[in-house]
Amino acid sequence: MWFSDLPRARPLHATLLLVLLLVLCVPVFAQSASIVVVTAADGPLTELDRSTTEQLYLGRRGSLFQGQGVLLVDLPSGPVRDEFYLRLTRKNPSQIRAYWSRLVFTGRAQPPREAASTDDARRIVLQTPGAVAYLPRAEADDPALRILFSLD
Q: Which of 61, 71, 76, 84 could form a cystine bridge with 131, CB 3.0-4.6 A?
């Protein structure tokens, strides 16, 4: 007898599974909606373009146009960091780790300084002239920060 209930239960199970997946995925998509590259509002940097930001975060460039040094700050491993590198460089986390391992091993560049959290990244940027970090847009809503570039 229970076999007769099976055809009616499948659409219900599929619908419930779909709703569950949507509910679980919405926070992930909402979190990765926008990432911005920031610096201190009173600092010398006023803007960065995509190409320069990518060159900086891939170690292809260590200073800006007038020889101005830049301290890059990375967030700890996690979804925001992965999303940032994927959007900016089109490289996944494994590719980024391998890329930086090669650069460090050959002595060509050092990776960005890793912050302990978004609050730590914000603190480093505010205390260090020329420091640049990326943050979720919701965490960059601070008058002491200047948004240099946005990855929407």
A: 71
